[in-house]
Amino acid sequence: MFNFFKRMKTIVGSELNAMLDKAEDPVKMLDQFMREMGEEIQEVEGAVAKQIANEKILKRKFDDAQALVNKRQSQAEKAIVAGEDELAKRALEEKKDYEKQVLLLQESYEQAKNDTTVLKNKLDEMKKEYQEMNLKKDTLKARAESAKTRTKINRNMSSIGGDASRRGFNRMEEKVLRFEAEAETSEDLSSQSRTLDDEFKKFDSSIDEELSELKRAMGKE
């Protein structure tokens, strides 16, 4: 279980590029990894709780056995004082049996206590690593989103200058030039269609102006 958590830590540290290569969504995958790690922590917390409960049970049994050893020792002493040697022997025999139990229970209790300490340390380490990876996850998610945005912008920019866009732009430019040429042609045709009288009108207008100027100079207006 703990090895799996360590493996997940390694994956989070190097998975971003691999996920991008596989066209996976890094943001969703990182969230998934963190959920799995959170579930691993919950499992270890459950195991630690069970181990602590087991340690307490063994400790209570050890204490009870030790209390019976002390009790039989006290009873044997009382029996000797009362002159009851047989009763004292029976107390001492049971004391010896309880001492054996004490040794076994003490060994089991010490082992359980050590196991509890190991699991607690691993759980603390897992939680610390989880917090570190959670912070790193936010950074990786921001980097992934930034990379996706840059890629999208670059693709849009590259499409602006694409062949289709360029051909369309050139076609519109040619249409504008054609409109301008048609307008110039229409002006030329309009000019050519004027009558001879129209052409001479400009001279008549000029003579009238010259006559008016002459009258003004002679004071005849």
UniProtKB/TrEMBL annotation:
Alphabetic keyword roster: Coiled coil
Signal peptide interval: none
Regions annotated as coiled coil: 81-189
InterPro entries: PspA_VIPP1
Family to which this protein belongs: Belongs to the PspA/Vipp/IM30 family.
UniProt-listed PANTHER family: MEMBRANE-ASSOCIATED PROTEIN VIPP1, CHLOROPLASTIC, PHAGE SHOCK PROTEIN A
The protein's name: PspA/IM30 family protein
Organism from which the protein derives: Ornithinibacillus xuwenensis
Lineage: Bacteria, Bacillati, Bacillota, Bacilli, Bacillales
